[in-house]
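REVIEWER CHECKLIST
Item 1: Sequence provided? yes
Item 2: Single chain? yes
Item 3: Sequence as submitted:
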Amino acid sequence: MASLPRHQGWSIERLVPLLAGAFVLISVLLAVTFSQWWLIFTGFVGANLLFYSAVGWCPATLLLRRAGVPATSASCPTLRAQADPEIARREFATGMQAAIQRSERLAIGDWRFVVQVVRGTRSASARYLAKL
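Item 4: Structure as written out by the authors:
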């Protein structure tokens, strides 16, 4: 079995479901122990969790963001880029430079191939056989 990914710290996207689960368990225990009215709190937590999954924020995310909790864990480059705009700009520029260099190399290679075919030093089908 493949090893499971390890978490890279606490973020809002991890804390919201954790808090919701804890509040649901606490409110169910309070409903069993004291009064059935505590189940209203369980419904409120469930509604906020649905709202969070549909819209991307809920009252808990506002409080956690104000407390300084990061929105996402920085475990992969895409998430780091989403968390820090400077990283996103740098990675985009690097990716664009690499794409331009690849396209230049391909264009030069295609031009050389056309010249070889015109001169008769290479057959046109060799290009397709080379790709296989």
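Item 5: Key structural point noted by reviewer: The mean pLDDT is 75.
Item 6: Recommendation: ____
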